[in-house]
Amino acid sequence: MSYKSQRHLKPSHMVTAVLIATGIGFAGTVQASQNLRFAHVYETSEPFHQWALWAAEEINERTDGRYSINVHPASSLGNEEAINEGLTLGTVDIIYTGAQFAGHAYGPIGIAGAPYMFRDFDHWQAYAESDLFEEIAAGFEEATGNVPIALNYYGERHVTANEPINVPEDMERLRIRVPGAPLYMMFPRAAGANPTPIAFDETYLALQQGVVDAQENPLPAIRAMAFHEVQEYINLTGHVTDSLITIVSGSLWDQLSEEDREIFREVFQEAAENNTADIVQAEEELVAWFEEQGNTVNEVDREPFREITVPYHLGDDANWDEETYERLQAIGQ
């Protein structure tokens, strides 16, 4: 079933980031709850955080209090590189991370973050539900010990700047902020721009001070981080149909019973479906909202940008083989 047609749940009430630390055991005795850390880099106003809180509460309830989850938003436990490393170090138990960052540890999983890899949202959706994604997730688990359990839609990434961008030539020598993963540099380099890795929570200041001329993110992230306040044009390049992966550390996963593993999978998959639905809705509504704020939302013919980028899909930066690439491209055809 498509995420668009899934039942769109809403949290029944606001929950705190710290849940009850004890529960009642089956025999009626007080049972200590295992406290877990869920880390991400997104703002508390974003759906990803709200559904992380919901998932924390659901897991606490469905496991009869055996697990309580503290959700740490907005890079409070470190940037994306740090929280990925934290899965292995044991400093975090659950994270949201971009496919490109997960690709540092296991190259093929990064394919979902390559520019113009997907034709559209429906292609992304078909991949999220595919055997190919399950196989790649299993490969990641085998390589790292950590377990991807859900794929969340992050949105189409667009270029913001203080000038319109209509053709690739408009990006030549443009200093554009990108996240610190190599695949994010593929599209700017194809267009002749100068990609500059800067942490997500440092990007507003970098734009404001002129350290960079532009940045790229989905519309909901642009609003949440207020990038529209320091960038006049939102150019709808749609160059990455992006994902966040929910990953559980191997050390936690190894401790879980089969019953609890199924609870974690079900809860985080449901949260991913609702994250996806919220982002799809926000993308539909935000063009008008940005125009109301005085921004210019620039419709772009994406085909010239796609044409210069696709040759890089099997180039030196590709950490997947041609068979994987062809299987992904065939999905939904």
TrEMBL record:
Keywords of this entry: Signal, Transport
Family listed: Belongs to the bacterial solute-binding protein 7 family.
Species, as recorded: Billgrantia endophytica
Localization terms from the record: Cell envelope
InterPro entries tied to this protein: DctP_fam, TRAP_DctP, TRAP_DctP_sf
Keyword Signal: yes
Any GO CC annotation of this UniProt entry: outer membrane-bounded periplasmic space
Pfam families xref list: DctP (PF03480)
Principal localisation: other
Record GO biological process: transmembrane transport
Protein name: ABC transporter substrate-binding protein
